[in-house]
Design goal:
The complex is a heterodimer of chains A (303) and B (268).
Chain A (H helix, E strand, L loop, with lengths): L1 E12 L2 E12 L3 E5 L6 H9 L6 E6 L9 H4 L2 E4 L11 H9 L8 H7 L15 H13 L5 E5 L7 H16 L3 E6 L2 H7 L2 E6 L2 E6 L1 H6 L5 E5 L9 H4 L2 E2 L2 E5 L3 H15 L7 E3 L3 H9 L11
Parallel strand pairs in A: 3-7, 3-8, 5-6, 6-7
Antiparallel strand pairs in A: 1-2, 1-4, 8-9, 10-12, 10-13, 11-12
Chain B lengths: L10 H17 L2 H22 L5 H33 L2 H6 L5 H31 L5 H25 L9 H15 L10 H7 L4 H12 L8 H21 L19
The chains are: A alpha/beta (303), B mainly alpha (268).
Chain lengths: 303, 268
C-alpha cells in the first residue's frame, strides 16, 4: 500500500515559489527523510501533506485522501510533531497524554507512551517545568499516542543537545521497528542516515535526489582518498598538496590508482607511515553539499 | 497502528474532557483567578467596609451587580480571548485542528469552562454581598442572576472569539482587550451610573456590556426577574454576529513575524 502520493506539487507564496514541482510516493512502513537546507521547501511540503496548507497546484493524497478534506477518521490515523513545541505548559505530562489519547479510537496506554518517551519519572510534572528536550519528547508522545498509521516529524531534534537528540532518535527507531510509516524533515545528515530508509533531498523547492542514504553517498561524484598527515609532514607532490586542509588530505580522485601510486611513492621516499589511509565513496555530507549547491531552477525560492 | 474502521470516542465524552481541560488551564492561570475572583472580591470588600451604613441598599446592589459583570467580562472576554491568542501563537490551536477533535468541540469546551468560572465568580460575589452587605436574596433571584450571567458570558465569549484575528501577538492581546472593554464597562455604568450624553447612553445599550449589567441588576432587585427581551435580543445578536465573523475569519495558525518573508511564513 502507498501511504503518500505527491504529483507535480507547487506552492507559491506571492512571487516566491517554495515548492516547485515535487513528485514522490511513500510506501507504508517506510521511514523517509526530507533533507535540505533552510528554505528548501521541507516544512511547506509537510504542511501541505498534513492539510495545513493548500497547494497552489498538483495532486496530493495521504492515506488515500486529500489532506484538506480529511475528516475525523482520517485525522485519527495521522500523528504530528511540529517544528516548534506546542504544548499547554500548565498540564502535567500524564494529563496531556490522557487528554490527547482520549480523542482516538485505540490509543496507546499512557504508561506505555511514558515508557517509550522515557518520561515515566516525570509523569506528574507540569510540562512548563520540563527541559526543552523533555518537552520535545512530550510532543512526540502526543504524536504517537493515537497509534498513527502515518507520523509526520518536522525537524524534531532541532535545538536539542546531543544527548537529547539521541534519546529522541531511539524513540523514533522504536516506532519504525513497529512498522509505522514516518516522514521526517531534517537538516541533520547524521539524523537522516541513522533513521531513514530513504532520503529525499530538497533544494530550491525541487527534489535534488531521492535515494537510500548509501546510494546518496555514491551520488556525490568521485571516490575520495582520505589521509591524516603526520606533523610535521614532508611536502606532498604538487597534484596532492592542493587538497590538504587542517592537516588532512581529502582528495576527490579521477584516477585512484595513479593518485595512490603518487601518495605511496611520497610515503616511501619520506618514510611516512600510511596507517589510517582510506579510499572510499564520498561522505553523505560531500554528496549532500554537491547536490544542494547545484544551480537552482529559475524562479525557485532560495531561503 | 490505528484501525481505519475503529469507532472514534463519542462527542459527549470528548466534550466533557475538553471542559475539564479548559477548567484546569483556567484554574492554573493565576491571572484568570485574580481577575475573575480575587479582584472583584477585594473591591467589594473595600467598598462595603468603607460605605457601610452610609449608602442605600440599592446602591450596594448596583455595586455588586457591577462587580459581578466586571468578573464575567474579565473571565469570558479578556482571559478567554487572551488565552485563545496565546494558544494560537504557541501552535496549540494548530495541533488541535489536526486531531480528530471537531473544531466546535474545542470552542465548546473553552466557552463552557469560561461560563462556569464566570458563574462561580458571580456566585462568590453574591455570597460576599449577602454576608458583608446583607443583600436580600431569594432562590428565584439567584436563578435569574445565573441566567443573566450565563447569557452575558456566552455573548462576551463570542465577541472575544471574533476579535482574536485582529490581535497578532500575545503581547498585543491585553492592550487590545482592555481598550475594548474598559470604556464599555465605564460608560455602561459598571462602576456606578454616570451622566452621559443621550446618544452615548443609547449607543451603549447596543453593545454587549450594558445589557448584562441591566440583566444582573434586574435579577438582584427585589421583585425583579428574568433578563428583559430587549437585553436578550441584543446579546443574542452579538453572539450570532460574532459567531458568523468567527466562522469566516477565525485563525488557527500563528501569525508569522514579518522578517520571515524570505523563508515564506517561516517555513523551510
Amino acid at each position: 500500500m502507498t501511504a503518500i502520493v505527491v504529483r507535480d506539487l507547487v506552492k507559491r507564496f506571492g512571487v516566491l515559489r517554495a515548492v516547485a514541482g515535487v513528485s514522490f510516493s511513500l510506501a507504508e512502513g517506510e521511514v523517509t527523510a526530507l533533507l535540505g537546507p533552510n528554505g528548501a521547501g521541507k516544512t511547506t511540503t509537510i504542511e501541505i501533506l498534513e492539510g495545513i496548507l493548500a497547494p497552489t497546484s498538483g495532486d496530493v493524497r495521504v492515506l488515500g485522501a486529500d489532506p484538506r478534506k480529511g475528516g475525523r477518521s482520517w485525522r485519527a490515523r495521522i500523528g504530528l510533531v511540529f517544528q516548534a513545541t506546542s504544548l499547554d505548559l500548565q498540564l502535567t505530562v500524564t494529563e496531556a497524554l490522557t487528554l490527547y489519547g482520549g480523542l482516538y479510537p485505540t490509543p496507546r496506554r499512557v504508561a506505555e507512551v511514558l515508557d517509550v518517551i522515557d518520561l515515566t519519572a516525570d509523569a506528574r510534572t507540569r510540562i512548563g517545568a520540563l527541559s526543552g528536550g523533555q518537552r520535545r519528547r512530550v510532543d512526540l508522545g502526543i504524536g504517537i499516542i493515537g497509534r498513527p498509521d502515518l507520523l509526520f516529524l518536522d525537524e524534531p531534534t532541532t535545538g536539542l543537545d546531543p544527548e537529547a537528540r539521541r534519546r529522541l532518535w531511539a524513540v523514533i527507531e522504536n516506532l519504525a521497528a513497529d512498522g509505522g510509516t514516518v516522514l521526517l524533515s531534517t537538516h541533520y545528515l547524521d539524523e537522516a542516515q541513522r533513521l531513514a530508509d530513504r532520503v529525499i533531498v530538497l533544494s530550491g523547492g525541487q527534489i535534488a535526489a531521492d535515494a537510500s542514504p548509501d546510494e546518496l553517498r555514491l551520488m556525490g561524484g568521485l571516490p575520495v582518498i582520505r589521509y591524516r598527515l603526520p606533523a610535521p609532514a614532508p611536502d606532498l607532490p604538487g597534484g596532492l598538496a592542493g587538497h590538504v586542509a587542517q592537516g588532512r588530505l581529502t582528495l576527490p580522485s579521477h584516477d585512484v590508482t595513479a593518485d595512490l601510486t603518487a601518495l605511496v611513492g611520497w610515503a616511501r621516499d619520506n618514510q611516512v607511515d600510511l596507517t589510517g589511509l582510506e579510499v572510499g565513496p564520498p561522505s553523505l555530507e560531500d554528496s549532500y553539499l554537491a547536490l544542494t549547491s547545484a544551480p537552482q531552477p529559475e524562479g525557485a525560492h532560495h531561503g | 497502528m490505528a484501525s481505519a474502521t475503529a469507532r472514534l470516542p463519542g462527542l459527549g465524552t470528548v466534550l466533557g474532557a475538553q471542559v475539564r481541560y479548559q477548567l484546569t488551564l483556567l484554574i492554573r492561570t493565576p491571572r484568570a483567578l485574580i481577575l475573575a475572583l480575587a479582584l472583584p472580591g477585594i473591591m467589594l470588600t473595600v467598598e462595603v467596609t468603607q460605605t457601610k451604613h452610609q449608602v442605600a441598599k440599592s446602591l450596594l446592589t448596583a455595586e455588586v451587580s457591577g462587580l459581578i459583570v466586571f468578573g464575567t467580562l474579565s473571565i469570558a472576554y479578556v482571559t478567554y480571548a487572551a488565552g485563545l491568542v496565546a494558544a494560537r501563537e504557541e501552535g496549540i490551536l494548530r495541533r488541535w485542528r489536526l486531531t480528530p477533535l471537531p473544531a466546535w468541540g474545542y470552542f465548546a469546551g473553552r466557552i463552557v469552562a469560561a461560563v462556569v468560572l464566570a458563574d462561580a465568580s458571580g456566585a462568590l460575589l453574591l455570597v460576599a454581598g449577602v454576608a458583608l452587605a446583607h443583600l436580600h436574596l431569594t432562590a428565584g433571584m439567584a436563578l435569574s442572576l445565573l441566567l443573566a450571567d450565563t447569557v452575558g458570558a456566552l455573548a462576551l465569549a463570542a465577541a472575544g472569539t471574533a476579535i482574536t484575528p485582529l490581535i497578532t501577538s500575545v503581547a498585543g492581546a491585553n492592550p487590545v482587550l482592555v481598550f475594548t472593554y474598559v470604556p464599555l464597562l465605564i460608560f455602561s455604568g459598571g462602576f456606578g451610573s454616570m451622566t452621559l450624553p443621550h446618544w452615548l447612553t443609547t449607543a451603549m445599550s447596543y453593545f454587549p456590556v450594558q445589557p448584562v449589567i441591566h440583566a444582573v441588576s434586574h435579577a438582584l432587585q427585589p421583585g425583579g426577574g428574568l433578563i428583559s427581551a430587549r437585553d436578550l435580543a441584543v446579546l443574542a445578536a452579538w453572539a450570532a454576529g460574532c459567531t458568523v465573523l468567527s466562522v469566516r475569519y477565525f485563525r488557527w495558525d500563528p501569525y508569522r513575524p514579518a522578517h520571515a518573508v524570505q523563508a515564506p511564513h517561516g517555513r523551510t
